[in-house]
Structure formats: structure tokens, C-alpha cells
Amino acid sequence: MIRVLLADDQPLLRSGFRALLDLEDDIEVVAEAADGEECLALVEEHLPDVALIDIQMPVMDGIEATRRIAADPALAGVHVVMLTNYGMDEYVLDALRAGAAGFLVKDILPEDFLHAVRVAARGDALLAPAITRKLIDRYVTQRPSTRADSGLEELTGREREAVALAAQGLSNSEIGEHMVIAPLTAKTHINRAMAKLHARDRAQLVVLAYESGLVTPRDH
User: Fold this and answer.
1) Fewest 10 Å CB contacts: which of 31, 81, 107, 182?
2) How close are the terminal C-alpha atoms of the chain, in Å?
3) CA 149 → CA 35, 36, 212, distances in Å?
4) pLDDT at position 15
5) 189 neighbors 167 (Cβ within 8 angstroms)
């Protein structure tokens, strides 16, 4: 059973998402929050597998709530997915740096929403959708690098190649096809790179790849 927390200051939106999730046999909504502070308290109480958190909320915004969740070792199993309007693009990189595993736009199709929740619960970053790639491309070039010493020299050549492909939005299967290796081997390369670079998840690994210069928007 996938345990989900919903955090958004719009009751109607929360109700709509909850109605979709409650129809699924393998998903359970364990809590709802109307602001970031309440969200953080409920995450600590319920330890959901997936926390769907709106970027803009009162008291504490979604980015700060995400940052605090990511910083708490006791919450390492909580995968944060940010809910955003398309016009809120400028917050994407900040949220990724804070520890978000991915993004969903609020007008997402129901079937895509349910798929995304299951993907996040598995620990996979929601980076494949074109919107996320475009947003990262747009904003990463506007921010100075925050990690001059990225640690990329610790990676093998194949690990670097796998990370670069992941940063372009490719799945493990697509990375495997590109590198002519099995998807499981591609996943192993990614997991080893995450461990060496101390990345919380795949999304953090992608941010590091951009900030270090391993990948740039023109590589797409």
C-alpha cells in the first residue's frame, strides 16, 4: 500500500486529488495539510511514502517544508513531489535543490497523476516529462554553480555517462539502450553514482550534473 500525504492550501484541489487516489486499491491518503508547517508535522507523524506538496503555501512554503524533510534522516523514506502551476517555473530548481523528487502540474491528466504517484513511491525521480527538462534547462543556466567541488572525479567513465544521460531525462531502459547495457546495469551505475556523490535521490543527482557542468542545456 502506497501511503500519500496531500499538502495544498486549496481545499477543492486537495479533495479532487484525494477522490482520485481513494479509488485506487494500492494507494491510501494518510493525511492532508493546508500549510507548510502542518505538512511538516504530519509528515513526521505519518511517514508517508509520497508527499504531494504545493510550492506556494501559507505559514511555510513548500520549498522550505521540502528542505526540512530532506534534511531529516528519519524522513529519508519520504519522496516529495511538488505541485505547481505552469506559471511557477522559477521555483523549480530551488525545489530540486531542496530535495524534491519531481513535479506535477495541477492540471495533469488523472491517469498521469496516478502513474506519477506510483513512480515516486518506487523512489524514481519524476524527471522524464518534457516540462521538467525544459524548466531545468531554463533556470539552471541563470544560477551560479553552488558546488565547485562536485566530486565527479570519483565516478568511473561509465558512471559519468549514465549520470549525463539521466540528467537529460532518460529512463534506465533508455540509458541502457544508449550505452548498450541492460537496464539493471544502468540502474546500478546510477545508484553507485548517487552513493559516491551523496545524492539523496535521482533528482539531486541531476541537479549536481547540471551545476558541475557535466551536462548543459545544449547537450539536449
Assistant:
1) 107
2) 37
3) 36, 32, 8
4) 93
5) no
